[in-house]
Each structure stands twice: as C-alpha cells, then as structure tokens.
Amino acid sequence: MKVRRFVAANSRQALAKVKEALGEDAIILANREVSEGVEILACHEDDFGHGLDSAPSNAPASSSPPESAPPIPPGHSVPRGVGPSDSSAAMEALLGEVRTLRQALERRHELSDVLPGLSLGDARWREALRELGFSKGLAKFLAERIPSLDGPEAMRVWVKSALGRHVQTMGENQDPLATGGVFALVGPTGVGKTTTTAKLAARIVLSRGAGRLAMISTDGYRIGAQEQLRTYAGILRVPVFGARDEADLNHALAAVADRDTVLIDTVGMSQRDQMLAEQVAVLGRASRTVQRLLCLNATSSLETLDEVVKAYSGAGLAGVIVTKMDEAARLGHVVDVVLRHRLPVWFMTTGQRVPEDFEVASTEVLLDRAFDLAQIGVAQAWSAEAA
Ligand SMILES: Nc1nc2c(ncn2[C@@H]2O[C@H](COP(=O)(O)OP(=O)(O)O)[C@@H](O)[C@H]2O)c(=O)[nH]1
Ligand SMILES: [Mg+2]
User: Fold this and answer.
1) Any residues with Cβ below 6 Å from ligand 1, and which?
2) Same-domain check for residues 269 and 143
3) Closest ligand 1 atom, CA of 265?
C-alpha cells in the first residue's frame, strides 16, 4: 500500500491537498494534529489493501509468507478471519469503516465552517473559560478535555458538571451555623466582614432567637468599626463585646460561655500585614475552638484572591464566604481559587442590605452564575457565527 502524508495549516487545506493528489476517492487512513497544523495519511483507493491482505500482485506466486507471520503447524488449518476467502470480506468491512471515518472527518470539517475553531484545537474553549475568569492553567486543563463540538451551551453543561463534583458548598438546605460554635470572620479591610457578621446574626436571631447568640468585635482600631456592629447588635438585641487583644478576647469568650453561637467580627488586615500571623495565632489559642471563615471579595482579581487565601490559610480555614457577588463581572476566578485550595464555600453575599442580600452557598447556583455566558464576548461571537 502506498501511503502518502499531507500536512497543512488546517484540516480543510490538508483535505484539499489529499483530493488534489489522490482524487475524490482517496482513502484517509489517519489524521492528527501536529506542530505545523494537521497531518493526514492517505492513499489512493486502488492502492488500499495492497500489502495488507496478500502479497503484492507483482510478487512471485510462490513467495514465502512475511517473516513476522507465525508458521502454521502441520495438521492445523488456517485460522478463520485470516484465510484467503475471509480476507476480502474483512477488507471490505475495513474499507467501509475507513469511508465512514472519512465522512466523519469531512462533516467535522464542514461544522468548523459554521463554528470556526471548534473542530480543531481547544483555543476557543480556552478563550471562553479565560473570559469567564478561570486561570490559564484551569482553562487549558478543561479545554483539552471538553468532548463536545456542540457549541457554548454544551461546553457550559460539561464544564459545570466536571467542576460541580469538586466545588464544595454547604448546599441550599443546610445551615452550617445551626449546630452552634464560635465563628470568626476574617479577611482584608472592606471585604464585608462586619456587614456579613450582621447578616449572619440576623439569620440566627430569626431562626433561633437572640438568647443563644453573642458577638465580639476585635476591630478596635478603626473609628466607628465597633459602632457599626453595635448598631446592628442593638437592633437584634444581641450582646456585643469589644476585644483589642488576646486577653480581651478570652475575657469576652468567658463572658459569653452560655451562648452556643458566637460571631467574631475581626479587624481587617491586608494579606501582606505582618500582624496577620499574630491574629491567626491568637484565634488559634482562644479558650474556645474558633472556626475561621475567610471573606473573599468576588470583585478582586484571581491573583489577589490567591494571595489572600495563602496568607490567611495558616492553622486552617473552616470555609469561605464569597462577598460582593453582585458587583463581580465574572466569577470563574472565585471558583478557581476555592477549587485549587479545596475550600468549602459556606455563604455568598449579594449586596449591602442587611439581612436580605445573603445566601447559603450552593454549588449549582455558584456555577450557574460563573457560567453566565451571556455576559461574555466569546459567546456573543459564537452565537453570531452560528446564526
Ligand atoms: N455590593 C456589595 N457591597 C457590600 C457587600 N457586603 C458588604 N458590602 C459593602 O462593603 C463595604 C465594606 O463593608 P464592611 O462590612 O464594613 O467590610 P469590613 O471592613 O470587611 O468589615 C460597605 O460599604 C458594605 O456595605 C455585598 O455583598 N455587596
Ligand atoms: Mg469591619
């Protein structure tokens, strides 16, 4: 069989070369992506099969079988499927299969006329995932594995289900605060710790009453910071204690020992602040076990969120609260960060109103919002091309 190799920048050009050289009935034996573009191995239909099923027609009739063929022991018949009578039927079947493959390749090629870039390579998917906020690495990883050619909607469904198995959230019907405990909201200044503490407090008061809840503010540095929490606490009739240092904190915790749930609103610290390690240590040494919840501002960049998580991770984080989701243009970066650090998302906040703009995190909702493709340019371009 005379196999020829054709290489071109894309499958359309490679197929054109095949047709030009070998005619309409050329048999495509293989195709794959190579560094120069696409490589197609093909032969002329008349050549197909020569050298596979029998010796070439110009070979002497008595020529011995190829060395690689196992000798047939005396007294044994030729096994079915390789004997001369079966060979032509097998070859016919193989030929049929190759034709089907060729048609599939050509259909794929036609589809790429409608949705350029979909049929070959994964650059389009990667671009879309990058636009949604995912990191280069995760976009590449996912794009290389997306199996479908059916456009952005299929991509959305597939990626959502692939990521959905790994994004950890509490789920709509579970309230992680229901069992009580001491929870400290930590994170940089301005991410929404105080507002979210108030939202959580309101939620607890509404479901279980004010009698089992207390609040502590360690934010003694900013003017009005404790006042802000005291105002909410006053409305909710929940006691609030100020704590400037470790001794204060333990004193406050002792004073609220009868409350099954304690919310600590901490002082905001930059992820680069030297004091941060001290804050982590103080909460770690507290007289009651403190579960730290890191507030991640959804409007921050992926790099910033990554840096914040790394800085705040010391001694372990119980989970994450994604804040300001209402202001974020995209959420892929948030999903990316919680995935790579394997952090469960407990809550999501969606506005300034206390207590309304608050949700218990659900993977479904988080991914739905992260894959709101309508917002991104690639999907619009896709729809325009597909129309
Ligand atoms: N748009 C929006 N603003 C929020 C959200 N949560 C808090 N904020 C606002 O962000 C600002 C800082 O919030 P604050 O709770 O004081 O942040 P802290 O410094 O971390 O305690 C305030 O103006 C809040 O009203 C939210 O989910 N969405
Ligand atoms: Mg605050």
Assistant:
1) 189-195, 268, 323-324, 326-327, 349-352, 357
2) no
3) 21
Higher pLDDT, 229 or 93: 229
Instruction: Quote the ligand 2 centre to 218 CA distance (angstroms).
Output: 9
319 and 193 in a common domain: yes
Could you tell me if residue 68 is inside a domain? no
Question: Which of 194, 195, 222 gets mutated to test ligand 1 (max ligand atoms within 8 A of its CB)?
Answer: 195
Strands (E), the chain: 4-8, 27-34, 37-43, 181-186, 213-217, 240-242, 261-265, 290-297, 319-323, 345-349, 358-360
**Residue of the CA atom closest to atom 12 of ligand 1:** 190
Nearest alpha carbon, ligand 1 atom 25: 352
Between CA 247 and CA 268 the distance in angstroms is 19
Q: Residue 171: inside a domain, yes or no?
A: no
By residue range, what is the domain housing residue 192? Answer: 181-361
Q: Count H helices, E strands: the chain?
A: 13, 11
What are the tens digits of pLDDT across the range 155-202?
778 888 889 989 999 876 677 788 899 999 999 999 999 999 999 999
This prediction's pTM: 0.69
Give me the number of domains the chain comprises.
3
Residue 244 has pLDDT above 70, yes or no: yes
* Spacing of C-alpha 255 from chain mean position: 45
**Which residue of 352, 354, 369 sits with most ligand 1 atoms within 8 Å of its CB, as the best mutation to test the pocket?**
352
**241 and 197 share a domain?**
yes
**136 and 218 co-located in one domain:** no
What DSSP character marks residue 357?
Answer: S
205-230 pLDDT tens trace: 999 899 999 999 987 666 666 788 89
pLDDT digits (tens, 9 = 90+) for 113-165: 333 333 334 677 788 888 889 999 888 888 877 765 566 677 778 888 889 98
The answer to whether position 203 is within a domain reads yes
Give a yes or no: residue 62 inside a domain. no
Question: What is the CA(350)–ligand 1 centre distance, in A?
Answer: 10
127 and 198 fall within a common domain: no
Same structural domain, 196 and 103: no
At 53, the pLDDT band (50, 70, 90 cuts) reads: very low
Which ligand is nearest to the Cα of residue 350, counting in written order?
1
Q: Are 263 and 215 in contact (CB under 8 A)?
A: yes
Residues 202, 335, single domain; the answer is yes
